Amino acid sequence: MNAISRLSLSVLLCLALAGCGKDDSSVDQEAADSMQTPGGATVGPGSGGQIGTAAVAEQLPPETVLLTVNGAEITQGDFDEALAGMFGRAGLGNSPQFAAIKAQMMPRLEKQLVDRTLLQQAASEAGSTPTDEEVVAKFEELVKARLPKDADVDAELKRQGLTRDELYADIRKGMAIEKMVEGLPGVVNPTDEEVRAHYDANVLNYQTPERVKARHILIKLDRGATDEQKAEARKKIEGLLAQIKSGEGDFGKLAGEHSGCPSGAKGGDLGYFGRGQMVPPFEKAAFGLEVGGLSDVIETDFGFHIIKLDERQKAGTRPFDEVSASIKQQMQQQSRQRAVNTLLTDLKGKAEIKKTRAGEKAIATKPAPPPFPVQPGGAK
User: Fold this and answer.
1) Domain assignment of residue 57, given as a range
2) Strand order in the sheet with 65-69
């Protein structure tokens, strides 16, 4: 779980638009995707990745003004804070990989920062201001979502180099936009009849495949394990299986003590999964069990497994009552996004947006560099 960090642009722009459009809400994921090679190998310290110097951007002082929006300055520091919101304050340090990602992200961040500034200006002009109590309540909601219950909030903020006042200021900006958006033309609160009509028209979207909920114990084997190592691993897992069958051993406890899978910390619980999500031998064994059933030893590329089936959900259609709340929320979000897009188009048409000379250089629009080549052994 990520600790609290400075609120990202997506939070500022989308406090009222949770799950909003691709341009804003998917930026964090796209930034993460940009750190992977076509083969899925992460390009980072120790990954074997190489990168040319052409993509490395000059690091400007944070006070450097890169552009203005109706006279409001957007600095290098604003871009840096946006990146910190995506990657954490540590980020990838001063590595060439991070410099390349930053260079690629600058045009996208420019759009977000301009959009944020325009929306903040519109909210200010509309007199949209949250109360102190609302800001504190939102702060506590974010803390509850991001930190463990027993966390020392102030200590965590200090560790991040932040203060409550800084976060309160960011939250206030986002909530001001939220309040303004709620009053925009076209923002709807759909009726129960409209939600039902949406469900009926899109009922295929609410079909669910057969799923099972299972636990497992894994005795892990490295690729290239010797016959002797395989025999030792099989002997170990057969001993665990015998303990479970005889009642001498508890499945969850043995998973925590012996499993080589991270799920061992949760008693081996893998949650629900459907067909096609697990390797074929594991899937065949899991879906072939009755609820409460225990598999024999199953061999996969990962090693040897014992599987216990906890639940099975048959394929079917989720009932309206189960999904109506999420449909209503989705319809609200879509109407907000359309209204915001319309507003931004209007605001941009009237705005005076200027790049400085430093901004022209730092936010140069150019084709993304080719995928990072990986040295032999870097991709797996």
Assistant:
1) 9-190+331-362
2) 72-75, 65-69, 353-355
